Amino acid sequence: MARVVITGANRGIGLALATAYAARGDEVIATSRTPSDALAALSGVTQHTLEVSDGESVEAFVSQISGPVDVLINNAGISGPARPQQTLAEMDYDGWAEAFAVNSMGPLRVLQGLRGQLAAAPLGKAVTITSQLGALSLDWPMSYAYCASKAAVNKVMRLAALDLKDEGTAVLLLHPGWVRTDMGGSEAALSVEESASGIMAAIDGLTLETTGAFLNWDGRPHEW
Ligand SMILES: NC(=O)c1ccc[n+]([C@@H]2O[C@H](COP(=O)([O-])OP(=O)(O)OC[C@H]3O[C@@H](n4cnc5c(N)ncnc54)[C@H](OP(=O)(O)O)[C@@H]3O)[C@@H](O)[C@H]2O)c1
Fold first, then answer.
1. Average of per-residue pLDDT across 2-13
2. To the nearest whole number, what is the mean pLDDT of the chain?
C-alpha cells in the first residue's frame, strides 16, 4: 500500500486520482484550498488544507505529515489570466505572476516541504502534472502565461531530478492529456478517469533509472 499526497484534489484530475488511489487501497492524503464534500465522501482519504502558492500554508501542511510518503502528485494548477489577457497584444502581468506562483513555484514549495518524507520511502516519487503547452517544441502561439508557467516547472523538475536521485527520489513530469474538467472544458478528449488511470500507470512504472522523464498520460515520452 502506497502513501500518496495529491494537491488540488477536490475536483478535476486531482479528485479522480484521489478516488482511484483510494479504490485500489492506497492511503491518500488529499489537499485542497477549502474543505471538500467530494473528498469527505471518499473512504481511505484524509483531507488537508493547502494553498500551494503560500509558503506558510505549505509549512503548516507538511508539519502534519510525518513518516514516509511514497508519491507526491503536484496536480494543483490554474490557467492564468483570461485568454485575451495573455497574448502578445495584451498581458495581465499580475495574473501571469499568479500563474507562476501556483504552477511553477507551488510544485517546488511542496516538494521542498516533503523532501524528507519522500527520501524516507523505499522509492519516493515526486510527480508534477504539467502540460504539453509547456513543451518548447510545441509552437502554438496561445496562453503565454500558462505556457511559460508550465515550461518553467518542467525545467525546475528536471533540475530536481538530478538533485534528488542520490536520495532515492524519482521525479516525473506528466502531460495528463486534454481532459474534460473545468480547465479542459467539455469538448476535451479524455474523461478524468481515463487520464487518472494512465497517470497512475506511468507513476507505477517510474524508477530511478527513468527519473527526470516527461511523459504523456498514456506513458509515451513527450518531446521537450
Ligand atoms: N484539463 C486539461 O485538459 C489539462 C491539460 C493539461 C494540463 N492540465 C493540468 O492538470 C492539472 C489539473 O487540472 P484540471 O483540469 O483538473 O483543473 P481544474 O479542474 O481546474 O482543477 C484545478 C485544481 O487545482 C486547484 N488549485 C488551483 N489553484 C490552487 C492553489 N493556489 N492552491 C491549491 N490548489 C489550487 C483547484 O482548487 P480550487 O477548487 O480551490 O480552485 C482544483 O482542485 C493542472 O495542473 C493543469 O494545469 C490539465
1. 98
2. 97
Whether the CB of 224 sits within 6 Å of ligand 1: no
The three grid cell numbers given for residue 15, joined into one nine-digit string: 479528485
- For the chain, the domains span 3-216
Residue 175 in grid coordinates:
502531460
What is the 50 CA–ligand 1 centroid distance (Å)?
A: 13
Q: 3-216 adopts what CATH topology? A: Rossmann fold (3.40.50)
Distance 166 CA to ligand 1 centre (A): 31
CB 74 within 8 Å of CB 106:
yes
Burial 133-164 (b: 16+ CB within 10 A, else e): bbbeeeeeeebbbbbbbbbbbbebbbebbeeb
Alpha-carbon 74 to chain mean position: 3
pLDDT digits (tens, 9 = 90+) for 92-132: 999 999 999 999 999 999 999 999 999 999 999 999 999 99
Can 144 be counted among the known catalytic residues?
no
- What are the two backbone dihedrals, phi and then psi, of residue 206, each rounded to the nearest 5 degrees? -70, 135
Q: Would you say residue 142 has pLDDT above 90?
A: no
- The interaxial angle of helices 144-164 and 106-119, nearest 10 deg, is 20
Mutate to test the pocket of ligand 1, among 29, 36, 78 (most ligand atoms within 8 A of CB): 78
> The whole model's pTM is what?
0.98
